[in-house]
Each structure stands twice: as C-alpha cells, then as structure tokens.
Amino acid sequence: MNKIFKTLTLKALGTGHVVSDEQLVKINQYTLKDVSADDVYVRSFLIAHNFLDRDNERFNEELLDDFAKTLHGKGFFVEGHPSSWSGKGGPGEGLFFDVSTENMSPEEFKSLTGEEPNLPEGIETVKVLSGWAYVLKLESNSDTLKKIDAGIYRYISVGFNAPRTIVIDAKGNEMYGEYQVHGEALEASLCWLGAQPGASAMKACTNCKNKNHKKEEGEKMDIDILKLLGEKLGKELTEDNAIKMVTDLLAEKDQTIKELKAHAADGKAYRTHLVDEVIRFGTMIDDVTSEPDKQKEYFDFITTWPIEQLKMQKDKYEVSARKQFPDTFTFEPKDENSRIEQEEKAKAKKPSKGKKDYTNPCNNELINTSWE
Fold this sequence. Notes:
- It is built from ten helices and eleven strands.
- By secondary structure, the chain is α+β, with helices and mostly antiparallel strands.
C-alpha cells in the first residue's frame, strides 16, 4: 500500500520547564519505574490548528479534539516521522503526557506565533492543539535538548490517520481539502519545516482515505458533554458560557449554604430558648428540680426533643406558672384558652400523681403518650 506523507509544522513554545508535581504524576503514569523531576526534560508544543495551510488544507475542529484524546502516551521523535523516508523508524525519544485543545481569537494566535491565520469563510475562531512532552536527560541527547532550547530545533509535526474530503462552494468549485473526524494521532516529531506559512502549524498524514468514517458495531462513541448538556438545558453551550453557568451555579450554591446556615443558627437559638423556658416555668411550679446537677441532666435530656414537643411542654408549664403566680407576670400569654385546653388534654391522658423525676423518660407524659 502506498503511503502518503504530509507534514505541516508549528513552532515549539517556550523552553524546557521546571517539572511541577502535577506534571510528574502524569509522567509517571507512563513509566515502568518512577522518575524524578531531575530525570526529565519537559516542554510544550503548539502542534496543530484549524486554518488553511500552504497546501490549501485544514484540520476539522472536532478532529483536533480526536488528536487531543489519542496523542496521550504516544511517541515524541526528534529526527522526523518514524514512518517517513527521512525517519529512523525506531523508538521515540520521549512521550506526550498532557495534550489539549484551546480556542483563541485570530489576534491572539498572531500574537502567539507571529502569523495571520487564514481561516475559511464562516469560521472566526482559531482552534489549536497543544501538548507537553517529556524526554529523559541523557548524555546521548544533551545536544538535542540544548538545540531545542536554543530554537534551532523548533518545529514539530503530528503523524495521524484521518479521512479527507474536498470542500466545494455553491457553484461546485473545489475550495480546500479538509481532514475530518474521526481520526487518530499516531506520534509527533521534530522536523525541518512544515507546509504552513511561518511554520505555525504542522501535520503528517499516512494512509489518508477520502471516505466517510463509519462506526464499527459495538464501538464506543465519545459523547460531547457540552452538546448533551446544552440539549438538556435547551440552549447552545460553548466552553465559555458553560464555565459561566457553572460559576453561577456555584455562586448560587454558596448563597444557599449561607442562608441555610443562618436558618440553622436561628433554629438552634429557638430550641435553646424553648428549653430554657421549660426549665424556668417548670422550676417555678416545682415540677423541675432546682438542683444544678439534676437540672443540667434535665436540660441535656430535653434538648434532644422535637421542637413541637418542647413547645407543648413549655406551654403546659407556663399555664400552670401563670395560675400559681399571677402577680409575677406583667402581660397576658398569647392564646391563653388554647394553652389551658392543651394542659387539660395532657392531664386527661395521664393524670399527675405528684412530683416526678423528669430525668427519667418513663415519667414524662409526653413521651409516654407517644408510646401508647
């Protein structure tokens, strides 16, 4: 089978970087023996984009996402593509351990690369594929790493498989070639120069076929989360407005938590007030002991009661206290008849037989009522 080679290159970004702890964790996912930050050289590369190159071809935006998913853990070569006429075909010098896509404006891309993106009509956003690769620091490759840092080895090219089609205009004229979803990134290699102006993008395609990609039976299809979420919400989502939506939801959640905390504090204060009132009125009618230790035990015991049960006990004691000590109170209780009625109902269910120890739940009418 004849192989088709096509290389487009992008400038490597920056120089070797200090390896972060997060990057080291990602790198050691691929090593058979853990390496340290001192063992590896890492740097980032801008690998591909979605606008037209010197050969009047482009990558489809979704295909770039395919590349971002499939280039992880694949080889980084320093002497051209291993499957091309100029490549050695041996193992790579390193691996790509972190690959992603990013949207940016044409102005941002020009500022980054110095090149004016040639976007097709109707497309206003540049999408780029970027990746981090690591290489072991060895005596055998020390010159190569120095040349990368010096900008001498500066261009990189991605090798891939993807279907290719021709985009035509309304009159049937061929406009440009386009590599489309679904595809796979096979590797990425340093090369001498690529097909795009200013060496601002790259690709190397093997076994490209101008046919539609068909899903094999049982093949797991990737789900576009933003699209799925947008359908559920009934609106189109982009990465930017999805982030805003999540930010708004988090802010709403924080506000709700703040309000619930305030309500919880109010509820706790109300419960404490009811318990204090039960003890105050109960002590006045000599139904609650005034002995501090015993009263503390009673406090701890009734603090666990439901609010409604505390209210009933407080109302019962208050009615009795007001009857016994009318001169002590300077205002009339709310709904006095209702409280008297509640007291009578409680007495009817279980008549009082003198003073009781309410630290024992068996002697509490309200608790016994719930058991009957």
